[in-house]
Amino acid sequence: MGLLQIKNLNLSIGDTQILQDISLQAEAGKIVAIIGESGSGKSMTAYCVNRLLPRGANVSGQVMFDGQDMLQLPEPALCDIRGADIGMVFQEPMTALNPVQTIGAQVAETVLIHGAAQKSEALKIARETLNRVGLPAAEFPLSRYPHELSGGQRQRVVIAMAIALRPKLLIADEPTTALDVTTQAQILGLLKKLVVEDGMALLLISHDLGVVADIADTIAIMRRGKVVESGPVKQVFAEMNHPYTRALFKASNHVPDRAAKAQETPILQVSGLVRDYILPRKSLFGAPPKLRAVNDVGFSIKRGESLGLVGESGCGKSTLTRAILGLDAVQAGRIEIDGRAVTAGEKVPRELRRKMQVVFQDPYGSFNPRHKVMRLVAEPFHLLDNAPTGSARHQAVEKALTEVGMLAADADKYIHEFSGGQRQRIAIARALIIKPELIILDEAVSALDVSIRAQILDLLAGLSDRLGLSYLFISHDLSVVRAITDRVMVMKSGKIIETGDTETVFTAPQHPYTKALIAAAPVLEKTP
Amino acid sequence: MLIFTLKRLLSLGLSLIAASVVIFVVVEIIPGDPARLMLGINATQDAVDALRSQMGLDQGLLARYWLWVSGMLQGDFGISYTYRVPVVEMVQGRVWVSLPLALYALLLSTVIAFPIGIIAAAKRGSWADWLVMGGTQLGVAIPNFWFAMIMVNIFALKYQWFSPGGFPGWDDPALAVKALTLPAFVLALPQASILARVMRSALLDTLSEDFMRTARAKGRTAKGAMVHHALRNAMIPVLTIIGLQFSFLLAGAIIIEKVFFLPGLGSMIFTAITQRDLIVVESVVMLLVFAVILVTFLVDITYALVDPRLRRRP
């Protein structure tokens, strides 16, 4: 008899059926992974366990936890169980902590709510728990505030809050999705260690097969509110009985066919680029300190080439992008676009600017929701001196849309009518419309589900072959960069520390940081 | 936090200097010779000149500005053109009506607004929420002079719980507070309505934050999470409004002072303007500006106390 047994769980919110007939179990000392793409109901399954459901939720079935049916318990009893017997870790460490309370107070709170100790004792437990999750007293006193910590450190605080009372079950909802690969590896290691030490059960929810492959004991694959396949990890990975499981594996490892050959002439050459940020003054007098976000960076992209840029958050990737696009003034250095130079302090002239377009990460936030797709896609036309008007303009938009696999009729819709993957296609159409030669893809596929990501990668590869486009492909996801780029640069603390052919860098990395990065990245074994 | 406070103090000083310059220049630009005004049309030129030099009006612009500012720093606000008494004396009696009235109204406004704002947010969409939203809409919309007269009719004339107007002075504090109760309530009602709405929307924003879910996952009850996590986070916009309301209440009570026959700053400045008693206007406006800037400073410091993230911002 397991610690947690979910039987025939159904959930609907309003008229929408979210979960259908879910059955799962978790045992003490074991890790159960729930895998699925967005909207598959994996998070909602977890929220059914501790009953933190949104308003209007209607559940039926059975969730037996430690001999009690969680679906039958009244709210006060649930409050007693939450935090004490069931801990929870969330996806977004940046917002999961109360910004106006110290980390000590927030960890001690778990202890205090459940009356497990007096205040001084609770603070002592908080201290010990923070030590356990790798936040030692010397560097991380209890009086620290969340904004003084990095994302990974905050996630450790969230974990400390969840395990302060040594719960029997820990639910981790995408605990590493918002973190860098090296931090991700550390957090996963920490979770695994806690499971072993405390003998607790871990329900690990993720969209990433690679993340769970190494540490989970059993796995459940969910799609559209149903568990399509479940069992011990090795068995599921070996058998893959359900076609969706196979499709998910294939998409995770997808490498698009690419035929484009890089030409010799460079489209973009950057040398000695420097970008400083001025920080708030530390003292009342004296010059404010500076942060050198981009430090003496130089590289070139050839026509038809796809260049990758990898690095962890805060390494200066996005600052570099903004500098190349001419959105920020640089302090020193030289940018040469198609043979014409733009020096520091100058504005990038329109005729050069139109050779470059950008696609950003967030397919939801990078469009004005009040404009129709027609107007959104036509936006870059302002860079042209004689932009097409009237029906020519319409035709150009429709052509760009069909180019990325959308329908011409989609031009008359609003952006909220499209899914994340479709929006990213529209973003690419918007980039294509003025026939640029270089497209900068800033984490352009990072927010997408693996199956959608595979489609977009195919689209990008095809466009590059047909139109001879060059890409600067920026991502923290090493497997994607490996799949789509010819050469790759590794960036750390504002500097490019390694450059080379993608395969060479991945198979024989030179710099220790590159080695660490590649070692930390979860790898899903290629399936037979 | 020390650097933050020092910076805020510096900005307080600079704001005061800027304000004093603006007020001085504006009063300078207004046509009319105060000496001539005081002595009347029939005064001889010699008499006017003598008074001008006595008042320091024959000196240069900078000298006069310095005279005015240095006087104020020593507590000398000049002498009223109309009443020939030191402005300080005129103001003193009035401040002890306006300041307590403003504080009283602010207290009532906060005491009314906080609970109903919190209830409306906690029970969003319920009949209680509807009632609060409807009631506050009405509270903002009612003209306060009309509401004041209704209050006087009911509580002063019909039930005779309060006197319909006037102020007995602070010799008996209980009587003074009683006299200020009706006007303070009338002043507080629209402010409380605004504050309750701000409180509600700030809380609703906070309730949907991720850390509220974290609190529930730790075992906090819905109420516990609201009290321990949501309230403090919702305070920033609420504090902003409270600061603005205090500034308004201090000088914006002219109509209410008239209705209740209260000898406050509002009615005094109104009279001074109609009588072109510029030195009084100048001094009282400066005093009010000082109060407003001081309140802004206090609100800024409170922000930083409430939210640690603001402490390191310049």
Structure, described:
The complex is a heterodimer of chains A (528) and B (314). With 528 residues, chain A is of the alpha/beta class. Chain A has helices spanning 42-49, 75-81, 103-113, 119-132, 151-163, 181-198, 209-215, 233-239, 243-252, 317-324, 350-353, 373-378, 390-403, 420-432, 450-467, 478-484, 502-507, 512-520, and strands spanning 4-13, 16-26, 31-36, 57-65, 68-69, 86-89, 169-173, 201-206, 218-223, 226-232, 266-278, 290-302, 306-310, 332-337, 340-343, 356-359, 438-442, 470-475, 487-492, 495-501. Chain A has a six-stranded mixed sheet with strand order 6-7-8-3-9-10, with helices on both faces. In chain A, a hairpin with a 2-residue loop joins strand 1 (4-13) and strand 2. Chain B is mainly α and 314 residues long. Chain B is 77% helix and 0% strand. Chain B is built from 14 helices and no strands. In chain B, helix 5 packs antiparallel against helix 6, helix 5 packs antiparallel against helix 11 (235-251) and helix 9 packs antiparallel against helix 10. Chain B is globular. At the A-B interface, helix 2, helix 3 and helix 5 of A face helix 1, helix 9 and helix 10 of B.
Helical coverage of chain A, percent range: 25-40%
Radius of gyration over C-alpha positions of chain B, nearest whole angstrom: 24 Å
Strand content of chain A: 25-35%
Instruction: Give the termini separation of chain A.
Output: 35 Å
**Sheet with most strands of chain A:** 6 strands, mixed
- Largest interface, counted by CB within 8 Å of the partner chain's CB: A-B, 34 and 27 residues
